[in-house]
Amino acid sequence: MGMLDANDLKLIGEELGRVIDDNLMPRIEDLIDEKLAPIHSEINGIKASMVTKSYLDDKLADLKSDLIGHDRRLEHKTDALIGTLADRRVLTTPDIERLEQSRVFPRITS
């Protein structure tokens, strides 16, 4: 038995490549798929529960509108209280002016 020449080494390398491609790589791919399947399932679940940007924008706009309406109602109540206390002379003019400066919404005069 003699030494292997370059052609023999090339043939051995090609055969090893075929054995790896035919036997080892499919098993490695199966193992990878097996390990990644739960991750793919979790990702799909996360995607299903995610909200879109437009949905979130709409909900935030609705919330902003609700909060502004709530603040306006509170300010009307505060105005009524200030008016009542001013009419009964419980508040002085400087007190009323100071309270007017803390308004959230500008007073609309007609």
List the helices and strands and how they pair.
Elements: H1 6-49, H2 53-87, H3 93-101
Describe the protein in words:
By secondary structure, the chain is mostly helical. It contains three helices and no strands. The chain has helices at residues 6-49, 53-87, 93-101. It is rod-shaped and about 120 Å long.
Give the helix level as a range of percent: over 70%
Q: Output the number of helix runs.
A: 3
Largest sheet: none
Strand content: under 5%
Coarse structural class? mainly alpha
Query: What is the first-to-last residue Cα distance?
Result: 113 Å
The number of domains: 2
Low-confidence stretches: none
SSE arrangement, N to C? HHH
**How many DSSP-defined strands?**
0
Instruction: Tell me, rounded to a whole number, the average pLDDT.
Output: 90
Keywords:
single chain, 110 residues, mainly alpha, 2 domains, 3 helices, 80% helix, 0% strand
Short description:
The chain has 110 residues and is an all-alpha fold. It has helices at residues 6-49, 53-87, 93-101.
